[in-house]
Amino acid sequence: MLMQTHEARLKALREELKRRDLSGFVIPISDEHMSEYVGDYAQRLNWLTGFGGSAGFAAVTLDHAAIFVDGRYTVQVKDQVDGNLFEYRSIPGDSLGAWLTEKAGDGAAIAYDPWLHTWSWVEALEAEVEPKGVRMVPADSNPIDAVWADQPAPSDAVAFSHEDALSGRSSSEKRGEIADWLTANDLDAVVIPALDSIAWLLNIRGSDVEHTPVAHSYVIAHKDGRADLFMAPEKITPELTQHLGNAVTIRDCNQFTAALGEFAGKRVSVDPEFGVVGIAQGLRAGGANFVFKQDPTILAKAIKNPVEQQGHRDAQERDGAAVSRFLRWLEVNAPSGEIDELTAAAKLEGFRREHGDLRDTSFDTISAASGHAALPHYKVDEETNIPIPPGSIYLVDSGGQYPAGTTDITRTVWINSADGSAEPTAEMKDRFTRVLKGHIQIDRARFPQGTNGGQIDAFARQYLWEAGVDYAHGTGHGVGSFLGVHEGPQRIAKPSGGQAGTSQELFAGMILSNEPGYYKAGEFGIRIENLVLTVEQEIANAEGAYLGFETLTFVPLDRTLIAKELLTDSEIAWVDDYHARVRDLIAPQLSGDDLAWLERECAPL
Q1: CATH of span 303-450+510-538+552-601
Q2: CB neighbours (10 Å) of residue 368?
Q3: Which of 177, 218, 292, 563 ranks highest by number of CB atoms within 10 Å?
Q4: Which Pfam families match (predicted)?
């Protein structure tokens, strides 16, 4: 019998907990690989609560329930989750441990799925609740799966090869480097559960996760250069087997847990951010001496080789033409008031499909009109969709997955009235221009080798700070090569608050976003985002090695929102030079009215 209401689902979960003699259960948005995006089968939090955000978790006891989200989702969670069933809790301010000890009480046994949480998460929670008499118990199986009658099955899509002509390096070469790393660290093997790390290491891709071209699998890499790939048999083709070669042993994914027990007396590494409790338990039960070290593919994957760099440039060139055509279409059609957020997002995807080998969008397009643009992580759906109002700001953050590279771009534009008389307010132009000035400072940054993203974040914020305003998200994230649009370990963000990646040194070859913003709640939002490539920088008489950024994204900026009087001469020159390069790269791909629009938008300020 299918349960249609969240009240019925919550009741069924509690009955299952009682049957197992458990006092409660913690439900994250996660899969066995700690992926950013998870398959439909792993959307347990959404099934239980109705929450559709990308970050958060719930805790359920026999008498209480709460959902924990950060500030990005304060509004969304109240729209989607019944407050009569779940308390709204804010993270990091509200502690899960404190809530559990208050609601569950002394002697409570709170279960968690050991395949959905990391070792460090469990250790930290245990340290908080066990002194209060609450036990954390790894569940033998997920209790939600036991009551979710129509739970989707994991994807059975076949995996496919990512050729060396696109990856720039062979899997054999990459596995050799991992073997050298293992030897240098006196390790026998490394368990790699992160799907993008597996894809990079073996030069394979898949379509198991929306927006990220990866295949559900695990890898154990050995110090002799061999690797075991654990994957469902239906996902393997003869072509993939040939591509992987004799040094990669393909094993059924159901054998993975048993394989963890094959390392008695051996030293095995697991990444603490991706190695879930179930992996550590399997290694320990088999007698392995496991240690926590960062996955050795992560930094190597982040530093793009020349082939990957050129692939990104090629993908960005196609993408720039598609987005430019969309912005011209928007300018013509949106003033009617008849274009809504979903229609705009679909039209943009259509232009992308016309302009290249688009395999997927790289994330859900943020198509945000009016006050929705003030929500940095807004996700439009049938319930939230609104017409784009004439005489307002519209923000679109989008990207594409192409075999040559992954794109991510945000443009903020003014939607005129039908008679062409609407003008942005002085405040809108001031904020847009301050965001632009910060964007320019990141783009032009020059910094010594050894600098991390946290050290240059303030470059983007300084002009907003002068006006007494700021934005609550990071300035930049890493981007993969036909992989995750959010890729570590590098970030540009405030170094406070323990944000992962802000202390990571930037290296030539790393790709990052450059996306400062400003958001006025309920009214409008502004963000300008290009991708940049970290490159070596020649500076006369420089004392040591210096780095800078090469711009990868080329789409016009909205001139209507620029307050030219706030720009310095050098900033005006930057805008004019940027638009000249946009014209040079994009104009050959356009014609007719699209080309005329581009020429107009790229004219000097």
Answers
A1: 3.90.230.10
A2: 31
A3: 218
A4: Creatinase_N, Creatinase_N_2, Peptidase_M24, Peptidase_M24_C
Distances in Å between the Cα of 420 and the Cα atoms of 334, 415, 424, 432, 563 are 12, 9, 12, 20, 19
Q: Please write the tens of the pLDDT for every residue from 395-452.
A: 999 999 999 999 999 999 999 999 999 999 999 999 999 999 999 999 999 999 999 9
DSSP 472-518: SS-SEEB--SSS-SS--S-EES-SGGG-TTTTSBP-TTBEEEE--EE
Phi (first) and psi of residue 251, to 5 degrees = -130, 150
Band the pLDDT of 496: cuts 50, 70, 90.
low
Q: What is this structure's pTM?
A: 0.94
How is domain 6-147 classified at the architecture level of CATH?
Answer: 3-Layer(aba) Sandwich (3.40)
Cα three-residue angle 146-112-119, rounded to 5 degrees: 140
CATH number of this structure's domain 160-301: 3.40.350.10
Domain residues of the chain, as ranges?
Answer: 6-147, 160-301, 303-450+510-538+552-601
Strands, E assignment, 98-215: 109-112, 135-138, 160-161, 189-192, 204-205
Q: Assess contact for 162 and 204: CB atoms under 8 A.
A: yes
Q: What are phi and psi of 97, to 5 degrees?
A: -60, -45
Question: What is the percentage of the chain residues whose pLDDT exceeds 90?
Answer: 92
Instruction: Classify burial at 499, counting beta carbons within 10 Å of its beta carbon; exposed 0-12, middle 13-18, buried 19 or more.
Output: middle
- Residues in contact with 425: Cβ distance below 8 Å, sequence separation at least 6, in sequence order: none
The DSSP-derived string for 22-46 is -SEEEEES--TT--SS--GGG-HHH
CA separation for the pair 138, 145 (Å, rounded) = 15
Q: What is the pLDDT of residues 506-530, one digit of tens each?
A: 999 999 999 999 999 999 999 999 9
Residues forming a β-bridge with 160: 205
